Amino acid sequence: MPDAFIKKLSGHGLLSQEDVALLVAACGRPNDIPAGRDLIREGDRPGPLFVILEGWACRYKLLPEGTRQITALLMPGDIFDLHAFVLDRMEHTIATLTSARVAMIPRERLEGLIEARPAITRAFLWTQLVDEDTLRAWLVSLGRRDTLQRVAHLMCELYVRASNIGLAKDGRLDLPLTQIVLGDALGLTSVHVNRVLRKLRMSGIMELTAGSLTIADLDKLVAVAGFDGTYLHRRLRRAA
Amino acid sequence: MPDAFIKKLSGHGLLSQEDVALLVAACGRPNDIPAGRDLIREGDRPGPLFVILEGWACRYKLLPEGTRQITALLMPGDIFDLHAFVLDRMEHTIATLTSARVAMIPRERLEGLIEARPAITRAFLWTQLVDEDTLRAWLVSLGRRDTLQRVAHLMCELYVRASNIGLAKDGRLDLPLTQIVLGDALGLTSVHVNRVLRKLRMSGIMELTAGSLTIADLDKLVAVAGFDGTYLHRRLRRAA
DNA sequence: CGGCCCCTTGAGCTGGTTCAAGAGATGTGG
DNA sequence: CCACATCTCTTGAACCAGCTCAAGGGGCCG
To answer: Which end of chain B is least crowded, N or C, by CB within 10 Å?
Structure first.
């Protein structure tokens, strides 16, 4: 059932089938959550570990001026929040962007697994480090890429990540994110996101309409973005 | 000798004196390294763990256009790179910004420690998570703060971090970073960094000259920055 | 049917960049 | 010990990428 989760976990080859089975078993019954719901709030004491099984979520921080910055987009298979283990307070909020199905692994259960299964510890460290590399790639985008490169780069990233869990192929991907959300992730206004998307559409590179991304020319998109996906530490799979 | 390192490690109260002693013992003889030297290069296979004992370094990524984005500023006591454990390739370069003294913990040695000492594993995970929160704070700055807030925010962060390892007090801190480096960290041009610093100086909030930061009015600086240092997971200590 | 989002586009503005030039500072070699 | 090269800091002037403000249209839900 939690297909993407398993794909994600086993994709890096760090876990045995047994480990994966243990993890899946540790998840309680999944919760169905509507769009726009906060799962964890800034200032909360860390709780269980969450796994997204379906749908999209994001990690964000609200500023006093009322603007917001999204610091991560989470898709099926993504895990949060390991912080639970060590830190005292959450520094950010996590919310669903679409309706989503989310599983939780209770903290005690997880600690048990980690103690008993070094491979699982290692796999968590791995995802943690990959997430961090992703975060750094975003920082580079916001700091040094213009908005065309920036949008293109994010689309490349999302396409690769979705491909890895079997949610994208042949240049197509369901991407139910509003331009407002994209703007908050990219440090732009939604107005400008709209203009950039138009430019990409006009030049026949890709099109994002009605919650669906269609990449007409992946090579060109990669070139525009200056995308080098090694930070995701996964090959881009050929269409399965 | 590696004073800041010990302060950093024991500061969060996760390690016993014994653990700290083990870690210090694991460091080989420190290396003295001149300014502007790469310690780890993008694409390298991960090697030992580094600890900065003196001086400043940074993590950065070079773009094809020749611009660079610094993704972390490293000061004494800071550790890198845990990536060694799990990832195959380094995604970025680490270089000294000033002459620096750096210790290394060989990989095998570290693995041994981690196996034998759960508290050490936990402490490393802690630093890892704090670094990640810091990275997110930077992302928020680049995405949603104007340049005045951005510069002020970074100064607040550096001041708190330096205070925690005993390198700053009474609003003073040695900060031997060029405006070019600051620009690369903040996603700005050095020209604009210069103008922002002038504005902060003119308004009597802080002054950065000749490698030395003097904060005249910390409250005002914090207010301008919208700084909330909880992401560093340390109280700001009163001057010791 | 009405209200609420979101998308889309236009027009004008502005924060930060680019380009340029001079002034210290520091280091190096003759 | 001076001459020269290199690097950073500083400031001015012009430009432009992305923002703000505004308005209209479409889709979806109650």
So the answer is: C
